[in-house]
Amino acid sequence: MRGRCRLLTLLLLALLRGLCRGREPAPGAVTCGSVLKLLNTRHSVRLHSHEVKYGSGSGQQSVTGVEASDDANSYWRIRGKSDGSCQRGTPVKCGQAIRLTHVNTGKNLHTHHFPSPLSNNQEVSAFGDDGEGDDLDIWIVQCSGTYWEREDAVRFKHVGTEVFLSITGEQYGHPIRGQREVHGMPTANHHNYWKAMEGVFIKPSMDPAKHDEL
């Protein structure tokens, strides 16, 4: 009887340890402050921006998709909905509101009720100055687990207009020939899955003071 009780105690302790580990961030979690490229898994192009404005619609800085993996204009920084809400090194949770700030121009990924120039979906632009824009810069990370994992394909749903960040394959001509249109779509489908690719990732930690760059 004593041996059985000991066995049950050990099994209970093992179960409790497993539950506690389940609450910890995984080593491959995407974290606040990380700088990365995002690959559209359907069309194999990376989210991109540059100092080229739309010739129609909002006239704001354009956002496109590019095939090249080494383009320096495809880096985005993960930030919180507001300053201080996503401390450096903290894992991004599924369902969390974030901003994506274009590293080279300091503008945020943005969408609004303008038609996109090629597909007539919803225009996606880069907006703001030095990382400061408005409420239309906020996106929800949609994924299936607890945290956004680097190996996962995730969706980004816009808070203000409820569209999904998408690509359906339309290509621009001059002056950005071959680049794909990025837009917002009202439905969740295979055109709006994205995966974290190249970048500088902050080591996941529940204590933002403890981190390393990989």
From TrEMBL:
InterPro entries: MIR_dom_sf (IPR036300), MIR_motif (IPR016093). Residues 27-81, 89-144, 145-199 form the MIR domain. Keywords: Repeat, Signal. It is found in: Secreted. Its main location: secreted. The keyword Signal applies. PROSITE patterns: MIR (PS50919). GO terms for cellular component: endoplasmic reticulum; extracellular region; protein-containing complex. PANTHER family: STROMAL CELL-DERIVED FACTOR 2-LIKE PROTEIN, STROMAL CELL-DERIVED FACTOR 2-LIKE PROTEIN 1. This is SDF2L protein. It comes from Cepphus grylle.
